[in-house]
Amino acid sequence: MCEFQSLVHNSSGYIIRCHECKNIQLAFGTTLVTMNMERFQWIAQNISMEYQYRNPSADPEIKKIIVSVDKQTMLCLSFNELEKLHHMFLQAGALLEVYGLLETEEI
């Protein structure tokens, strides 16, 4: 049975990780997705790239940014939502690094 570590939790959603199976769960808006670490890193990279190269002044509330989650799932986001999700992934990624260091120290 999964035992979750909270990585990020705010009014936009959450990112948690199972301590046992290491799967990550993202809840954002009306979407809930479970993924492995490789997929999490891939999505984080795509979100970071979209955030870096998008023009925030061009209709920040209109949903026109597509971020693939897997072959069947995509997130359709406004720039403002992309910004929130980007910050969530940055926070989660930083905590995952810390947890990784702590788990290495325990061995």
Explain the overall architecture:
The strands form two sheets. The protein has a four-stranded antiparallel sheet with strand order 1-2-3-4. A two-stranded antiparallel ribbon has the order 5-6. Helix 1 packs antiparallel against helix 2. 42% of the residues lie in helices and 29% in strands. The chain has one domain. It has 107 residues and is an alpha+beta fold.
What's the oligomerization state? single chain
Elements, N to C (H/E): EEEEHEEH
Structure classification? alpha+beta
- The span between the termini is 23 Å
The profile of the biggest β sheet is: 4 strands, antiparallel
Radius of gyration: 14 Å
Shape: elongated
Q: What is the beta-strand fraction?
A: 25-35%
Outline the low-pLDDT stretches.
none
Q: Provide the domain count.
A: 1
* Average pLDDT taken over every residue: 91
The order of strands across the largest sheet is 1-2-3-4
What's the total helix number?
2
Q: What's the β-strand tally?
A: 6
Helix proportion range: 40-55%
Outline of this structure?
This protein is of the alpha+beta class. 42% of the residues lie in helices and 29% in strands. The protein contains two helices and six strands; from the N terminus they run E-E-E-E-H-E-E-H.
How is this fold's topology laid out?
Layout: E1 4-10, E2 13-18, E3 24-28, E4 31-35, H1 37-53, E5 65-68, E6 74-77, H2 79-106
Antiparallel strand pairs: 1-2, 2-3, 3-4, 5-6
